[in-house]
Amino acid sequence: MKYKKQAIADSQPSMNVDGVKAWLGDVFISAKNEPNKDQPLCAGFFHLEAGKPLDYTYDYEEMKIVVEGEFNITEVKTGNKYNCKPGDVLYFADGDHIIFDTPHRAVGFFCGQRKPL
User: Fold this and answer.
1) How far apart are CA 48 and CA 101, in angstroms?
2) Which of 2, 15, 77, 78 has the most Cβ atoms closer than 10 angstroms to its Cβ?
3) Cα(19)–Cα(40) distance, rounded to whole angstroms?
4) 91: buried, middle or exposed (CB in 10 Å: 19+, 13-18, 0-12)?
């Protein structure tokens, strides 16, 4: 077992998207001896501040729960829009093209099947 006290407060690395105030970091990564060692489970926090939206296309599977603030999410393929608040859960499939926006600030906890950052 692993335990990380108040991981939500940890400083996360920038996503380095020009003009976008977004940070994302892995808190835990599944053990390398797992059956899916090429695509471990990675879990951590995604922070977004108001400003230019984040335009992101997934190349892996991910689930996210909103833990602070409010995300406005647009699914580009369908045009569907969602206003996501704490407690809301999202599933993103490989290939999903998503635009993340927030009126102020938002934080999501994610668990994705991808290579570590």
Assistant:
1) 8
2) 15
3) 30
4) exposed
Supply the Cα-derived Rg of the chain in whole angstroms: 14
CA 102/CA 42 separation, integer angstroms? 24
Asked if residue 1 is part of any domain, the answer here is no
Domain assignment present for residue 2? The answer is no
Q: Is residue 3 part of a domain?
A: no
DSSP structural state of residue 53: P
Q: How far apart, in whole angstroms, are the C-alpha atoms of residue 38 and residue 60?
A: 12
Q: What is the pTM of this model?
A: 0.90
Which CATH number goes with the domain that contains 69? 2.60.120.10
In tens, the pLDDT along 32-58 reads 655 666 778 899 999 999 999 999 999
